[in-house]
Amino acid sequence: MSSLLSPLRLGPWALRNRVVMAPLTRSRAEADASANELMLRYYEQRASAGLIVSEGIVVSPQGASYRNVPGLFSDAHIAPWSAITEAVHRRGGLIVAQLWHVGRQSHSSVQPDGAPPGGPSAVPITGYSYYARPDKLRFETPRALSTQEIRAIVGDFAAAARRAIMAGFDGVEIHGANGYLIDQFLHRSANRRTDAYGGGPAGRSRFLHEVLEAVSVEVPTARIGVRLSPSSTWMDVDDADKPGLFSHVVSSLSGKGLGYLHLVEPNIAGATDASDAAPVRVDTSTLRPLFDGALISTGGHGTPSAETLLAAGTADLIGFGRPFIANPDLVERISGALPWATPQPRTFYSGGAEGYTSYPAYA
């Protein structure tokens, strides 16, 4: 039997297979960040995955940037998510909530108080534009978050994790990738602080570890994953020594009893495939020996590359992102060696059922 389709016992979780539905922002939530019936159908269609990692769920209104993304910053968000987790569980699936704060990737136009967004330091993103229909805007210079504000955000992550468990999620994933707030703290290009949250890799990792510690009060550590993108420079996050930085970060996460470590492969930059996305590659194979738990590898995989990584012991599970958009029955297609449908990029964030729940299972 294919290794990809073999079951795996992962702490408290019994996975039917090693296929992970990776987190995908789809912008289908309500204006108040509530999940809805359309999202329920979307996740239910894909419940044959061994594990679903939800789209990014913002932990506070200040942590949002894109329109119609879901949240868990209010008790009112619990019931709509409960309906989704129940639907996934009815089909025998498992689902964790990815907890998300965008940091300086936000814009004053969507901040509750109209102020510039917060980040580790007052360093703007210069190589990209903030997209606000119908225009593209410059990213603003963020406010350097105070120690008090950092502690409040740590509390937001913990509160969102508590609501996730109340909503029936099987665990949570802390989003530390793709140039969002935790990733901003990790990288010297975005973090110029001279206090306890800056300086060397240990100081720049402090925020991540404080979030992890706070979340672990609400969720057993074996039900917590952490996602990192070691090679990506998406949204101007970079470091003079990426291999050294992420060797430190991954090593510091080892021994904590995490459910898993989720690594994005070097050929992915944010939401973009690019062969040259990583000027400095930090390969999963070099980080694998530094972590003592289960590892998910996500990014551009097909069945052959997935099987190769599993056979080599480089990864224990394989994440698939965009393939799950157009193939709600991706596991069945892998099992039957059936062709994969191609998603329509114009519908990724367009709202509505088209390109979301409209992709059929293989006839």
Describe this structure in words.
The protein has 363 residues and is an alpha/beta fold. The chain has one domain: TIM Barrel, CATH 3.20.20.70. It is 28% helix and 17% strand. The chain is built from eleven helices and 16 strands. It has helices at 37-45, 78-90, 147-166, 181-186, 201-204, 206-218, 242-253, 284-287, 303-312, 322-326, 330-335; strands at residues 8-10, 13-15, 19-21, 51-58, 95-100, 118-119, 129-132, 135-138, 143-144, 171-175, 224-228, 260-264, 268-269, 272-273, 295-298, 317-320. The strands form five sheets. The protein has an eight-stranded parallel β-barrel with strand order 3-4-5-10-11-12-15-16, surrounded by four helices. The protein has a two-stranded antiparallel sheet with strand order 1-2. α3 packs parallel to α6. The longest helix is centred in the middle third of the chain and has 20 residues, at 147-166. The radius of gyration is 19 Å and the shape is globular. The mean pLDDT is 95.
Q: Give the SSE order as H and E letters.
A: EEEHEHEEEEEHEHHHEHEEEHEHEHH
Q: Specify the CATH homologous superfamily.
A: Aldolase class I
Radius of gyration: 19 Å
Write down the domain tally. 1
Q: Uncertain regions: pLDDT < 50 for 5+ in a row?
A: none
Q: Ends: how far apart?
A: 24 Å
Question: What's the rounded overall pLDDT mean?
Answer: 95
The CATH topology label is: TIM Barrel
Describe the largest sheet.
8 strands, parallel, barrel
Helix content: 25-40%
